Each structure stands twice: as C-alpha cells, then as structure tokens.
Amino acid sequence: MTIKELDVWFRKLLDIDAFAEKDDSLNGIQVGRSAAPLTKVAFAVDACAESISRAAASSAQALFVHHGLFWGKPERIDGLMLGRIRALVQSDLALYACHLPLDSHPELGNNAVLARLLGLMNLEPFGRYHGIDIGCAGTLPEPIGMEEAIRRILPDGSRPRTLIAAGPSLIRKVAVVSGGAPFEALQALGTGIDLYVTGEPSHSIYHHIVEGCLNFMAAGHYATEIWGVRAVAERLAAETGLKTTFIDLPTGL
Fold it and tell me: Cβ(195)–Cβ(174) under 8 Å?
C-alpha cells in the first residue's frame, strides 16, 4: 500500500471528504512521501518534533495524527515549522491529519469510544459545531456516582483537570464532546443531561453550569483524544496487515 492508497482507505473509513467545508484542519495528507510501499504507520495525537522523531525511529513511513500542522490558513515554512517539515522529508515520513472526522465518527471517533467506556446506551448526536454534531449523548443502564464516571473516563487513574459538581449526585444521562469544547456544555442545559464531559474548561461558562445545575468534567484535552487515534490504528492493522504503533506523548492538559 502506498501513501496515496492509504489516503483513499482513510477517506472512505472516516468520511473525510464530508468535512471539507466544515473543518479548519487540512485533513488528509499534509506532507507527502515517496511512492515506496508502506509497511508501518505510527499514530499520535499531535504533530510535533517529538512525535515525528519517534515515528521515524520506529521505522514507520507515515504518521497519522489528530492535530496536524496546517489549520485553514497559509503558514510560513520557517522556524519550528521548518524543523518539523525538514524532519519529515529527511525521513521520507508522510504526515496524515484527521481532526473533526475523528471526533465525530460513530464507531471509531473519540466521542464514540468515550461513550463506550462510560457504558452509554441509546446514543444520539450532540454538540453542534460548525453546523455538525461532533459529540454524542446517551443514558447509562444504571445511575452512577461521579467517582465511577471519572474511573471510566480516565481508566489510567488520573484525575480530571476541572470538575464542577453542580448537578445530581447520581448520573444517568451524559453528553460527551472531546477536546477543547467547554462552550458546547451550554447546549446541555435544560435537556435532562446530568453530566457533560469534555477536555478543557473555561471560566466563562462557570456560572452557567452552576446555575443550570449541571455536572461538568474537563478530563483533559489529550486524555479525551487518544481514543480515536488508537481505534483507527487497531482497525488499520486488522484490515490491511500494516504494522502500527501508538506514540503516547501526554501533555497533562
């Protein structure tokens, strides 16, 4: 499989072209490579000097990331950007980015996997952003407390970056929008949702959350966005036979 053939595979799997007018990210191949066949693909949340270096050291020929290098406007190829691109080109390492399609995918997306970790049922779209619903909401078969919700969302034993326990002590209905989506919590107010889960907090929504009696959890931008990358890596290995590796570079944010 070449990088062009891998691009076709990813676009079909993740419906990338449907987001062409809705996502600021340059989804797809951001930096190409030679036409030589691929044998291994590295996966990471962020395109940065370390993820590129570790991907190259692992003998991968492509690096798939959630957060790429290009975001809807021209970039000067200078400084840090030049260093990253030079490292990619010198290693003949392609860079492939997938942003909103990886958040919203109903099976492999960050939010879909988080919903499975929580045990949510009867999933429905949630979290309108740029005209599309990128998250999901659902109900638990049995109510759980906040500590159990934290355990399920952060199975590594880490703690949320921010927790506002302003809602019911027993949680039944949950909405999830991974990453930097604190303002989408406002869409949960008055809908019967007991807990809203995202990655990052914002001071601007605090009083809305408290007065709206909603539980709010910012579990970490990175911590909520490892799941889709890992799920796609597993699917790629299972369906194509390519080797894959996940590069874990937690930011603590």
Answer: yes
pLDDT digit string, tens, across residues 80-94: 999 999 999 999 999
Name which of 251, 247, 202 is nearest 223 in CA terms: 251
Confidence check: pLDDT of 131 > 90: no
- The two three-digit tokens of residue 175, written as one number: 């909405």
User: Does residue 82 contact residue 24 with C-beta atoms inside 8 Å?
Assistant: no
In the chain, helix, strand, coil percent, each to 5?
35, 25, 40
What pTM value is reported for the model? 0.96
> Six-digit token pair at 172?
């039944």
Nearest Cα to 145, choosing from 195, 218, 100?
A: 195
| Phi, psi (rounded to 5 degrees) for 10 | -65, -40
Residue type, 179: G
Token pair for 163: 């927790």
